[in-house]
Write a structure and sequence with these properties.
48% of the residues lie in helices and 20% in strands. It is α+β, with helices and mostly antiparallel strands. It folds into 3 domains: 109 residues, Trigger factor ribosome-binding domain (Alpha-Beta Plaits, 2-Layer Sandwich), CATH 3.30.70.1050; 204 residues, Orthogonal Bundle (Trigger factor, domain 2), CATH 1.10.3120.10; 97 residues, Chitinase A, domain 3 (Roll), CATH 3.10.50. The strands form 3 sheets. Strands 6, 7, 8, 9 and 10 form a 5-stranded antiparallel sheet that branches. A 4-stranded antiparallel sheet has the order 1-2-4-3. Strands 5-11 form a two-stranded parallel ribbon. Helix 3 packs across helix 5, helix 4 crosses helix 5 and helix 7 crosses helix 10. The radius of gyration is 34 Å and the shape is flat. The relative contact order is 0.11.
Length: 445
Amino acid sequence: MIQTKVEQIADNEHMVLASLPQSEFDRIYNARMDAMKGKVKLPGFRPGKMPKNVIQQQFGNQLFEETVSEILRTHYIAAIESSGLKPAIQPTFDVPQEQEDDRFTFSLRITSWPTIALNDLSTLSFERTNVTVEESDVQEVVDRLLQSQVKYNIVAERAAENGDQLIIDFEGSIDDIPFEGGKAEGSTLVLGSNTFIPGFEDQLIGKKAGDDCIVEVTFPENYQATHLAGKTAKFAVVVQSVAAAEKAEDDDQLAKMLNFESAAALREDATNRLSREAIDAGYQSTRESCFEAMIEANSIDLPEAILEEDMQSTAKRVLNNMKQQGLTDIDGMSQDPEFLAEVRKRSERGLKLSILLQAVRDTIGDIEVSNEEVDAEIDRLSMQYAEDQRSQFKDWMHSQKEQVSAIQDRITEQKCVHYIDSVANPTVKEISLSAWQGAQDEGNA
């Protein structure tokens, strides 16, 4: 029924001229007119008895627009399929004011993805990074745990010192009137941690279990609860317990504190965790080097329409992330030339990589991601959680279709990178995990 003619108007830009028999337009138009006839009311006409010429006179423009809208909604997919084109973004429509006598015509402007022929991957040169775990890396983890892991032991009649852990009840008031959020029971506080209002913790030094006291403080001028900022408050505090901090003096004590069978088991666990981190680090560095080489070796001209649409979504995503991080001074950034230049740079890179990776997938052929591979990745991600939380995390991940799809995409990308690495000509860089982390910190500074 539908007929199409394709005209190229620019690289990756086509105009699809589509036409349908006028009878199709008339069928939809008349059906809408009949439906309207039974609904509209005009003075002097009984319901359902209004002549068609009167309906056309009163509602002709509305009927035409609704008919065109339905035709486009019903037939535009067929028009695209008939053209043989694959749109990269939503096509734009146009309906000529003047129509042929026996055909209804409309046009689609279609922007398609650029097609490229990959340069020979065997000539591609980039840096493959192998990140290794040294004994010093493991020792650094153990040393950090020795400093950070603390066990608290309640000591009767102990006068609280800096570093002690107190369990307290408190209720705050301003001008003898309690305020919202100023009351808690069984609250944990480590003296010297500076987690409470400045001056609060200092006034509890020397207190013992069972003591009650009044702590007087002034909220900072920039306090997040603006109704309290700069005001003086009194807290009635009851000390429930005082616990002294105990740190491990050696690896054996540390292992026992962390529920490992021995210091050797603790170091083995640290080595395994660092090894997984080293693999990820090596892959990320290799991936970035590979991607930069791919972009450099393959010239891609992006259609401006695709780039502009991606820039809009990228800018929106970046601004939303900034808001979620608590940044408020972002009004007007969407018009800032430097911000827009950075967004354009990100969009160009992301779009080019999408095209290049699709070309690699076409070279490899079908890339299958098995359920076992997805499960293994979810298991790996679960290791960042405590052992008793991993099962819950894995169940949640499996229930989230978007998360599973993202993992499948990530595994597919990894297979593309590994394929490129296997056929290209990379140089190998060996670096310890601590040196790699130092380079990342320096680069982010």
